[in-house]
Structure formats: structure tokens, C-alpha cells
Amino acid sequence: MGAVTQVLRWAAGADTIPQDGDFDDGVLLDLVGQHALSGRLERRLSTGPEWLRRRLGGPVAVMHGDTVALAEAHMREVDRIVAALGEQPPPVLVKGIATGLLTGKKHLLRCGDIDLVCADGGPLIETLTRLGYERTRAPFLHELGEYTREGVEIDVHAYLPVPGYGAVRDADLTPAGHASTWYQPRRAPALHAIRHGRLADGGTVAVARVTVPDPCLLAIVLCAHAFLNFTNMWSLSHRAKPYVKLAELADLHALVQHEAFDTRRFLALVEDLDAWDAVSWAGWASTVLLGSNPLPVPAGTGPFPRCLWWDFWAQLPVDEEALLLPDWFDLAAVTPLLGNRIELDTGRPTPPWTVEVRRDDDRVTVTVGLPDRTDAATERGRVDFGTRGTEWVLSGGLLSAVGGHDTCELLSGRRVRLRYRVPGAGGEVLVGVAEQDASGWMLSAVLCPATWRSADPAGGR
Questions:
Q1: Helix, coil or strand: residue 58
Q2: How far is 115 from 155, CA to CA, in rounded Å?
Q3: Beta strand 181-185 pairing with 341-345
Q4: Burial class (CB in 10 A: 0-12, 13-18, 19+), 179
Q5: pLDDT tens digit string along 158-198?
Q6: Which stretches of 86-214 are DSSP H helices?
Q7: Which residues contact 100 (CB under 8 A, 6 or more apart)?
Q8: Across 263-322, where does the E strand assignment appear?
Q9: CB 305 within 8 A of CB 314
Q10: 82 — phi, psi (to 5°)?
């Protein structure tokens, strides 16, 4: 266990007292913020090691003071939004400050954006617009959009997903024995929705008009959210964040101890929402990282498959230390486990896609060649260096892209070219291409691990 992650685990509730180590205080404080542990760390420092209190006491107190001030501002803002909704059902606040509000303990407050689950997106979005909010992210899956005003970000949710492995659980997820192409049949994972009505049932008005779920439902929401982040090897934004946020695991310990936590209700909800995979994974993660499982469900023992991209899944080793750091994944360790190429076996002939990766001076160029014609409504691709990446979409002749690229352009001959500044003379990259119909159904897809070197093309795949 590294010195930095030892302090993080202790701040989140682990019993092992950290030993004085050689680490950069600034790096640690940044991770304390990413794991949302400022309040918990400040509280433990009062009786913790003197050397740690001397080094971090002042900065952590400032950090938590800022968190409390932001939480109070968020509460006022949600209260203002609910008042402006009038007779409409108020949204339910989840994640973020919810645990701190529900328990009434300031050291459990943590703030990011504001996640609101609504009964009807129309009135809430109209209200946000009337109050001066602007949409800063388009609707995606269960999210109806992100709305921002003067630095306050609100994510509007139609529902909260509870993911499960479903058909993935019993699949062959190792490439051993496969030919040069690893064909993966479509394996639909399970997904249940927690909607506003379920969240409001037993909801608690914590402060003024700010409503949060009861501790049983909130615990399942946190398990589901943490499990989704863990299984999703790809993140569209590649923000500096760890796969596992320790505050979410620590919140589970606090919620189970809440006077309103009802074990029978919790188990009934787990069964009803088919949340066994998420809850058993959270029990495993809490046991491994914090030393104990607070949930009244046996901790999972794995293996825990992870989604590479789209419908591609693989069984990959888990580095517990890496789960807590914002370094994403090491492609040099991942790509040897994937074979030469992964293809979605849909029965549709794979288009003649080509992928070329090369380095010139300080840039890496990825060029994807598309077929002359396609009957697909949308063509899309992903590029991932492990620490940065891009998703591009070509539809109706228009190319759009989000991510960490420098440029993304459509060239003649239906070629998509992306350029990146990537340090080093060589390395690994994953490149994926897919086609979808008008409903978003994946018609075909491939995932190609590639290696780039200076001025040397990786070649078509």
C-alpha cells in the first residue's frame, strides 16, 4: 500500500494508522478532494498521528470549510428551484450532499454537481431555464441534460440506473483459445431503473424543501453508482477522477448506522431492483479498501468483469492501488489480454474499416478509414490512450467529437483523422469503430489494440 493511499483509506474509515511517508502534500490533498474526504479527514486528524495533523491540518480545514460553504449554497439553490416549481412534485436529491443532509453530520458533506431525479423533466427544465440556467450537456441515456448557472451544475435525471452483469456473468471473457479475432456475441447486461416515485417513497425532507431518499434507497443508489464507475473501463470525459471514490464506500457505513436503516427493507429493495451485483461488489470493495463490509449482504468474491467499450467485456486483473488513483488504466497491461482484435458477432458482415496509427514529431495521428457506403444511420468511433481519449460520431455527413484530441476532421475518401500530443516515443492505443441503426442499436463493432512508434504506421486492422 502506498503512503498516499494509506492516508486516503484511513481518512475514509480504515483502521490502519498511516505511517509517516515520503509523499507530496499537494498530491495527497488533490486526491482528498477527488475522493471527497475533507470532512472525514479533518475529523480523524484531531486524534490521529501528530505528523499528519501538522502537515495537513490547516489545508484540510480550509478545504472542508469550502465544502460546507458550497453545500450550504447548493441547499439554498435546490430550495429556490423547488419553490419555483410550485405545485409540481419536487425532485429528489441523490449522491453529493445527500448523506450529510440525511445524517445531519457536517463532516459527511461532499459536493460536486447537484444530481436531481425528477418526476417530469419538462417542468423542471423549464424552471431551470427560467431561473437563468443554460444547458451545458445534451441528454444521454438516463440523464436529461446538465444545466449550469454561475458555476452551479445540475444534472437532471429521468431515473437512476442499477446495473448488473446479466448475461455477462457466465460469459467466456478471456481471449485464450480464440483465433486472431476474438468474436464476442452481444451479451446484454442487466439494468433496472430507480425512478422518482420509488425515491420519493419514504423520502426525507432534510433541510427546508431539499428532499433525499431514505438510507436504504440511498445506499443502493451509491452501490449502483460506484459499481457502474468500476465496470466502465472507458470514460468519455477522462476527467481526473479515480475509479472508486472512497467517500461513496464510507457513506455506506454511515447509512447502515442510520436509525432509519431497515435491514428487511434494504434486502427487499435489493431483490426488487436486482441490485445483487452492485451491492455484493460494494461489499467487496469496502472490505478490500476499508477493511470491512457494512452491508447486510455477503461481500462478493469476484471475478468482476469490466466493460471495455460498448458491448465488449473482458476479465481483467484488478490493481487495488490503481482503483484509488486518477491514472485510469495502463494500456501496456491491458492490451496483451485482449488479443489482436475483438469483433461484435451480430451476424452482419464487418465493414472494411481500416485503422492507421503513427507518430510524427510530437503528435500521434489516428486515421480510421470508413467504407464508401453504409446503410447505417450513424458511424462512430473511440480512441483511447488510457489517460485521454475521444469519441466521435458521423451522422448525416456531419462529424462531431468530444474528448482529449487536438483535432478531429473528416477527410476525403471518408477518413476520420484525429491528432494528439502524447509523450514518449511509443506506446499502446485502443481504436474502436461501430455502426448503429436509427434507434441506436449496434449493428457491428470492432476494437483494435494498436502500438505506435515514431514515424511508423501501425497498419490497417
A1: helix
A2: 5
A3: parallel
A4: exposed
A5: 999 999 999 898 888 876 655 678 888 888 788 999 999 99
A6: 98-103, 121-130, 196-200
A7: 39, 71, 106, 107, 108, 109, 110
A8: 306-309, 312-314
A9: yes
A10: -65, -40
Map grid coordinates 477518413 to a residue.
415
* Residue corresponding to grid cell 484509488: 324
Find, among 253, 255, 302, the residue nearest to 280 by Cα.
302
pLDDT tens digits for 281-339?
A: 999 999 999 999 999 999 999 889 999 888 899 888 888 888 998 877 788 888 888 88
Identify any residues that bridge with 382 across adjacent strands, giving them in sequence order: 391, 432
Backbone angles phi, psi at 257, to 5 degrees: -85, -5
Q: Are 266 and 293 a contacting pair, CB within 8 Å?
A: no
In angstroms, the CA 286 to CA 299 distance is 9
The grid coordinates listed for 331 are 494500456
Name the pTM for this structure: 0.91
C-alpha 423, offset from chain centre: 26
Give the chain's length. 461
Contact criterion met (CB below 8 Å) for 139 and 156:
no
pLDDT < 70 stretches in the chain: 1, 175-179, 202-208, 235-240, 425, 453-461
Question: 35 is written with which cell numbers?
Answer: 475522493
Amino acid at 116: L
Say how many Å lie between the first and final Cα of the chain, rounded.
Answer: 40
> Are 71 and 109 spatial neighbours (Cβ–Cβ below 8 Å)?
yes
Q: How far apart are CA 416 and CA 166, in angstroms?
A: 35
CA–CA dist 71, 93 (Å, integer): 12
Name residue, grid cell 471475478. 303
- Residues of the chain with pLDDT > 90, as a percent, come to 62
